[in-house]
Amino acid sequence: MTRGLLFFAALAIAASLAALGRPAGDLLQRVPPAAAKRRNPFAGSEPDRRAGAKLFRQECAACHGRDAKGIGKAPPLTNPLVRQADPGKLFWILQNGSLRRGMPSFSHLPDEERWQIVTYLKSL
Amino acid sequence: MSIRDQKRALFGSRWLAKAITGVFVCLASAWAGEAPNFITYTHQMEEPGNLEIDTKGVIAKPAGGNRFLGSAMEFEYGTTGWWTTEFYLDGQATASDSTVFTGFRLENRFRVLPREHWINPVLYVEFEDINAADKSLLEVVGHDGNDDFLGSNAEARQEKEREIETKLILGSYVKGWTIAENFIVEKNLRHEPWEFGYAVAASRPLALRAKPDRCTFCAENFQAGVEMYGGLGTHKDFGLTDTSQYVAPTIAWQLPNGPLFRFSPGFGVTAQSLPMLFRFSVSYEVAQAGRAIREMFAGDKGRR
User: What pLDDT score does A101 carry?
Assistant: First the structure.
C-alpha cells in the first residue's frame, strides 16, 4: 500500500517536473518546419526591438511578468531555448498560441508587430 | 455626531480610499486590441484569466417616437483559451418616458479549432432574459425595426423575452485586416418563430508597425472599419423583405494605459430601420483579474 502511494507520488512529481520543463521546448518542437524557416524582417533593428519591448509590456507581461521571467504556469521567456529558437518558430507560437495550455493566439496583432515582439524576445 | 462616530466615519472613508486605490494599483490593465465593431464578433477570444468591463451605449430617435439611450454593461471573462463567457446588464432611458432596467444576458463563445486558419469558426450561445423595453440593440434579427421602439416603457416592460440566441462566428486576419461574418439564429422560448440575422465587418489598424516609444495619438492606437448588419426574416418568411439593415463606419482608440474607446454612427438603409444610430463604448481590460484580486486581499502573502 505504502509502496503504491510512493510510486504514485513519484509519478506525480515526475509529471510535474516534465510539465515545468515542457513549456518552451515542447511548444517549439511542434512548429511546422515551413513556418520555422520564416525570416524576421526586423532582425537587428533597435527601434523595432524597443517597439517589441513596448508591445511585450502591453500584451505579454501580465502572464509572463514584466521581466519575462514567468509567473505561475506562464513559462520564463529568458531561457536559452527561447533565445536560440528560430525567429519563425516564435512567430508561429505567437500566431497560434497553445489554447490547451492557456497561451492565447496573438493573431489579432499585425504580422509586423508580432515580428517586433520576436525581435525583443531574441534580445532577452 | 459624537467624536467617536466622526473617527469611525473617517476611518471608514480612509479604508474605502485605500481599497479603491488598491484596486487601481493592483489590477494591471491589458490591451484589448479588439476590432472596433459593436455588433460583429471576431474570432478573437478573451485572454484566459482576463476580465474586460465594457459599457456600451446607443442613442437613436425612431421615426414617430422619442429619443432613447440604450445601454449594456458587459463583463467578459476568459475562462480558458478556447472559452470566453460574458454577462450583460441592460437598461435604457427614453425621453419623455422613463429609465428602466431591462434584463440580463449570459453568453458563451467556444473556439472550435485550436490553430489559426484562413477562416476560424467560433460557436456562440446566449440566454437572454430581457423585456420588450430593451433598446440596447446588440443584435438585429427577424423583422426587428422602427415600430419596436414606439411603445411606452410601462407597456413594453410587461412583455418578457426569454430567448436563446446562437451564432456562427467566422473570422480571418488578412494582411492587417480583420474580417468577420456572423450568422445569427434566435428563438424566443415561447411559441414564436425562429428569427435570423447577420453581421459582417472589416477593420484595420491605421498603422501596422508599432512605434518604439509609448504614445497616445500615434496611428497604431487607432483602428477603423465598417460593419453591416440586419435581419433576415424568420423561418416562415426568410429574406430581406420588411427587415432593418444598417451600415456603420467604426473607429476605436486604445489609450496606452488601458481604456479603449469606440464610436460608430450607423445609418438605416431600409424603411423598417431606425434612421440613425450613434453607438459608443468605453472598455477596460483587467489583466489576470483572479490573480490580481487574490493578491490584493492577501497582501504580501498573496504575492509570494
Answer: 82
